[in-house]
Amino acid sequence: MITSHIAVDLGAQSGRIVIGTLRDQKRLEIREIHRFANEMVEVNGHLHWDIHRLFSEIKQGFEICVRQHDDPVSSIGIDTWGVDFVLIDRLGKFIGLPYSYRDRRTNGMVEKFTQKMPARKLYERTGVQLNQINTVFQLYAMTCEHSPVLETMAGLLFMPDIFNYLLTERFCSEFTIATTSQLYNPVTKAWDEKIFDQLGFGSGVMPPVREPGSPIADLTSEITNSTGLGRMPVIAVASHDTGSAVAAVPSIDNNHAYISSGTWSLMGIETTKPLINKNTFEFNFTNEGGICGTYRVLKNITGLYLLQECRRAWDQKKKYTHDELIAEASSAAPLRSMIDPDDPCFFSPAEGMPGAIQSYCRRTSQPAPKKTGEFTRCILESLALAYRHTLECLRKIRKQRICRIHVIGGGSRNDLLCQLTADATGLPVHAGPQEATAIGNILVQAMASGQLGSLSELRTLVRNSFEPIIYQPRPMPGIEKTYERFLELKRERTEGGECA
Predict the structure, then answer these.
(1) Superfamily of domain 2-239
(2) Distance (Å, rounded) from C-alpha 409 to C-alpha 432?
């Protein structure tokens, strides 16, 4: 039996439409049908997402599927990044464009909100790490500025919910995306009323939450007519992209950590219940929903965004390919300079990312990188050090054996980063699949249709379909001294918190 499913996978840098074909439930083949850029747009000094252009690209991808794919398509699933949202009015219309989580209006909101609700209490109610990008702080920024749109809003939709709404006209959300917002209580499995009390409005604006793998509704007749797709269901997959990616980790047991590597690096472990305690709070770990009753206990680390922003600055003079940058970095001197990837100075630097990295290095009495290879090596080594630090924290919050690291997502094709991660952590790194998010999206659709019966079956199929590249740790002279200095820099920033 041959069946196909369409995954719409939207990231903060690009979007893609991928079609996955299952052959006798033993092997998955994927093919990218359509890829397009996704960039923030500036409107009146604020950063937004152009959801109308993105939706146009999605429909164009559907049209290409109809023209190029011969096998019948059974369903569609959408995943995106978390925390961002759009408000809708009483007529069901969007109120403006959604803000980007990188907009600076949330600066200082963590401190302001936690004066009303202490940080520990907020964490105990949500299990979500404190981060200014979280939905709760975006909404609180609107409350503080007395935004008039709060008076006219009748509902709120997160990014994947927006496109599900446009495709089906159903107002709903999904468990994995809801849990990223810091508005949802994973213990009571409901929107947390006490948090909404602090925001100044009730949780009635929030959509009902569906479990991953449940159907939302069929495509509207307008979409079927305009794209040529037949009548088919849209499935609530793990609509937070990391949730879909972690579903596709090709593990054989639970003795591993994962890194979903892309714009962000999401590093963690999988559990059957949230881990909300003193250690996870102090180390600033988050609890996000997964599929099949799982939770992702993870650390949100600034990832390849650092290199992406450097490339954007360098592109003004010369465009570098990925392979060129990795070759230059491989030739650059090792452990020459490092950064703390999560330092706030790298969040959205006005001086540009290369300038921010140079300023950081000078401020911390290190040689500042000058050549592209030096910048790239600095970033990749710093990420590897951050992964080692997070690994040590994971071992403290849960006494389980971690004997390997699975790196999935776009960063899995970065040979140098994967090898540096193995070297810094002392663990073998299993890299791949690169398109883990789209794969997880597709296979949750397959579960919804009854083609797969469990998470174990899903991961067996991933292992049978995609061969990982394994990086064994090698001696790294000078790493211990460099890591000690890295920890000093983190301690100076966090003042003893975050597993210092």
Answers:
(1) ATPase, nucleotide binding domain (3.30.420.40)
(2) 7
**CA angle in degrees (0–180, nearest 5) for 8-342-282:** 100
Q: Give CA–CA dist 246/266, Å, rounded.
A: 10
* Interval 34-75: pLDDT, tens: 999 999 999 999 999 999 999 999 999 999 999 999 888 999
Q: Which regions of 24-94 does DSSP assign to beta strands (E)? A: 27-37, 40-43, 46-49, 73-79, 85-88
pLDDT in tens, 229-281: 999 999 999 999 999 999 999 999 999 999 999 999 999 999 999 999 999 99
Residue 340 appears among annotated catalytic residues: no
Domain layout of the chain by residue ranges: 2-239, 251-432+468-500
Q: Residues 9, 192, 241, 340: which is the catalytic one?
A: 241
Q: Mapping DSSP to helix (H, G, I), strand (E, B) and coil, where does residue 456 land?
A: helix
Name the pTM for this structure: 0.95
Q: Which fold has domain 251-432+468-500?
A: Nucleotidyltransferase; domain 5 (3.30.420)
Amino acid letter, residue 44: N
Inter-residue contact 150 to 143 (CB < 8 Å): yes
Do the beta carbons of residue 211 and residue 175 sit within 8 Å?
yes
Return the axis-axis angle of helices 479-494 and 415-425, rounded to nearest 10°: 90
